[in-house]
Design goal:
The complex is a heterodimer. By secondary structure, chain A is mainly beta. Helix content of chain A is 7%, strand content 29%. In chain A, strands 1, 2, 3, 4, 5, 6 and 7 form a seven-stranded mixed beta sheet that branches. The N and C termini of chain A lie far apart (40 Å). The mean pLDDT of chain A is 92. In chain B, α1 packs parallel to α7 and α3 (135-144) runs parallel beside α4. Chain B is an alpha/beta fold. Chain B folds into two domains: 2-118 and 251-365, 3-Layer(bba) Sandwich (FAD/NAD(P)-binding domain), CATH 3.50.50.60; 129-247, 3-Layer(bba) Sandwich (FAD/NAD(P)-binding domain), CATH 3.50.50.60. In chain B, β9, α4 and β10 form a beta-alpha-beta unit. In chain B, strands 1, 2, 3, 4, 5, 6 and 19 form a seven-stranded mixed beta sheet that branches. In chain B, strands 8-15-9-10-11 form a five-stranded parallel beta sheet. Chain B is globular, with a radius of gyration of 21 Å. The chains are: A mainly beta, B alpha/beta. At the A-B interface, α1 and β4 of A face β8 and α3 of B. Chain B: It holds the Pfam family Pyr_redox_2. Chain B: It comes from Candidatus Fermentithermobacillus carboniphilus. Chain B: This is FAD-dependent oxidoreductase.
Chain lengths: 107, 366
C-alpha cells in the first residue's frame, strides 16, 4: 500500500511539485515544501536519528517541532528537525548519529 | 528595534482570538507562530465541532482555521510572523525571536502567551521505537500532508482525541486494530465511540500496552488487562501485529516561555500539568504577561477562543484603549460564556482545577 493518500472523503490535497532529494546518499522523492519527515515517511523511512547514549533508533513523535525526536543532518548541518524543515530539490539528508558532526568535521 | 504594542505567541484559536480582540481596539499586534500559517492545531482537525452553533459548532476545524487565518490577513492592525519561535521574554519588555531571517528582538508593551500544549508520553518498554507517534502527529501527517502513518494502528486512549483520530485513520484507509483504555469506561463522547464500534473496531476498556517491539521500528505490541490497582495481569497478554502505536493519552500545557518570563507556575493535575497563576483578566504574576488557551490549562478550542478574547480585551484595557464600563461588561459576558462552555462533565474537572489554582493565587496575593 502506498502511504500517500490519493482519495479522501473530506480532504483534497493540492497539486504539488515532485522533487528529488537524497537520503543517506540514495535518491528519493517528495513534494516541494512539505516537511522532510513526511516525505521520508512516505518513502518508507522511519529511523531518522540514533540516540545520543544508547544508539537507539528514533523517529518523529510530535511532528510539529516540539520534541526533537526527529533530528537529522541536512546539507551538513546537524540538529535539524525533520518535521519542520521544508523539502527542497536536491537536499542531502542524513541520519543523525548522536550529536551529529561537529562544525570542524564539515566541509 | 522592531516595536509592537501586544505580542501574541501562538496563532492557534486562543492566540488568534486574543489578537483580533485587541486589534479591534486599535492595538498594534504582532502574532507569532512556529508554523508558516495561522490556525494552530485546527489545521488538522477534519471533524466537526460540538457545542454552540453560535460558537462555531458544526464547523470542521480545517474550515474554522481558514476563517480565522483570513481574519488575521485582512486585519491591518495585526502583523503575522510565521516560521518564527519565541526564545525568551526579558524584563525590559523585549521578546527574542528566531525568524527565518535570523535572531531578532521585538519590543512589546504586553505579551500574550498562547503556546498551547504538547502530548504526554506513556511509559512502556519500546516507547522510543520509531512508529510510536502522538495522536497529533498522526493527524498532522495524515490530514495536513496526506501521508498515512502506516498500515495498521494500535490506538492507546479512548478520550475524544483517540476516538476521533481512530475514525480519521479509517477514513484515510488505515486499519485500526484496537483502541485501548486503561480506565474501566470509555473516556470520550458516546457518539464518537459508537462510530468506532460500528466499524468493528474493538474498544478494550481496562487494558493497557505492556510493550512495543520490533527491529529498529514498531512491528507489534503486547497488550494486557489491568487489575483495579492499574497493574497488568500476567496471562492476559495479547500480541497485536501493528506498525504504528498512536498515543492519545492526554496533553500537557506548553509553559516554557511563561517559566522563563518569571510567571509563578503551579502543578494542577486537572489542568494537565504546570500552569501559571492568573487573575480574572488572564494576567499572570509576571506583569503585563497574559495567558490563554491550553497553556493556561488543557481544554478545547471553544474555551481557548473565549479565553483568548478575554486576554486580548484585558491587554487592550491595560493599554488604556477600552472604556472601563465596556471592559467590565464585556469581561462578564466572556466569563459567563466560559462558565456555560464548562457545564458538561469534562467542564466539572476543569472547574475543580481552576478552583485549586485560584486558592493558590489568593495565597500568593495574601
Amino acid at each position: 500500500m502506498d502511504l500517500r493518500i490519493e482519495d479522501h472523503p473530506i480532504l483534497s490535497f493540492p497539486e504539488r511539485k515532485k522533487v528529488k532529494f537524497f537520503w543517506e546518499g540514495r535518491e528519493v522523492w517528495g513534494y516541494e515544501g512539505e516537511p522532510v519527515a513526511s516525505a521520508l515517511h512516505a518513502a518508507g523511512i522511519k529511523v531518522l536519528h540514533k540516540s545520543l547514549k544508547l544508539d537507539h533508533p528514533r523517529g518523529f513523535f510530535c511532528a510539529i517541532g516540539n520534541c526533537s525526536s526527529c533530528l537529522v543532518v541536512i546539507d551538513g548541518v546537524p540538529n535539524v528537525r525533520a518535521c519542520t524543515a521544508k523539502l527542497r530539490a536536491g537536499m542531502r539528508v542524513e541520519m543523525q548519529r548522536g550529536a551529529g558532526p561537529a562544525p570542524s568535521d564539515r566541509e | 528595534m522592531r516595536k509592537t504594542e501586544l505580542a501574541v505567541v501562538g496563532a492557534g484559536p486562543a492566540g488568534i482570538s486574543g489578537a483580533l480582540e485587541a486589534a479591534s481596539y486599535g492595538v498594534k499586534v504582532t502574532l507569532i507562530d512556529r508554523g508558516d500559517r495561522p490556525g494552530g492545531q485546527l489545521v488538522k482537525q477534519t471533524h466537526k465541532f460540538f457545542g454552540w452553533h453560535a460558537k462555531g459548532a458544526g464547523t470542521r476545524g480545517i474550515v474554522l482555521a481558514e476563517q480565522l487565518a483570513r481574519h488575521i490577513r485582512e486585519n491591518e492592525n495585526v502583523t503575522f510572523f510565521g516560521s518564527t519561535e519565541a526564545l525568551g521574554y526579558y524584563s525590559d519588555k523585549v521578546l527574542l525571536l528566531e525568524t527565518p531571517r535570523g535572531i531578532e528582538p521585538l519590543q512589546c508593551e504586553r505579551l500574550l502567551v498562547a503556546t498551547g500544549a504538547s502530548e504526554k508520553m506513556l511509559l512502556f518498554p519500546g516507547n522510543d521505537l520509531p512508529g510510536v507517534y502522538g495522536a497529533g502527529a498522526v493527524q498532522t501527517l495524515m490530514n495536513v500532508y496526506g501521508v498515512r502513518p502506516g498500515r495498521s494502528v494500535l490506538m492507546v486512549g479512548s478520550g475524544n482525541i483517540g476516538l476521533i483520530v481512530s475514525y480519521q485513520l479509517v477514513q484515510a484507509g488505515v486499519r485500526v486494530a484496537a483502541v485501548l483504555e486503561a480506565m474501566p469506561v470509555i473516556g470520550g463522547y458516546a457518539v464518537h465511540a459508537s462510530k468506532i464500534r460500528r466499524l468493528g473496531i474493538p474498544i478494550l476498556t481496562g487494558h493497557s500496552i505492556k510493550e512495543a517491539y520490533g527491529d529498529g521500528q514498531v512491528e507489534g505490541a503486547v497488550i494486557w488487562k489491568l487489575d483495579e490497582k492499574w497493574n497488568g495481569i500476567p496471562g492476559t497478554e495479547k500480541d497485536l501485529k501493528v506498525d504504528v502505536i498512536c498515543l492519545a493519552t492526554g496533553l500537557t500545557p506548553l509553559g516554557e516561555l511563561l517559566w522563563q518570563a518569571g510567571a509563578q507556575m503551579e502543578y494542577v493535575s486537572e489542568l494537565g500539568g504546570f500552569v501559571p497563576l492568573y487573575d480574572e483578566n488572564m494576567e499572570t504574576t509576571a506583569k503585563g504577561v497574559f495567558v490563554a488557551g491550553d497553556a493556561s490549562g488543557v481544554e478545547e478550542a471553544s474555551t481557548a477562543m473565549a479565553e483568548g478574547k478575554l486576554a486580548g480585551l484585558s491587554a487592550a484595557w491595560s493599554l488604556g484603549r477600552v472604556p472601563p464600563e465596556e471592559f467590565t461588561r464585556k469581561r462578564e459576558e466572556i466569563r459567563n460564556e466560559l462558565y456555560q462552555l464548562r457545564a458538561g462533565p469534562t467542564g466539572q474537572k476543569i472547574l475543580r482545577g481552576l478552583e485549586t489554582l485560584s486558592k493558590r493565587a489568593k495565597k500568593v496575593t495574601a
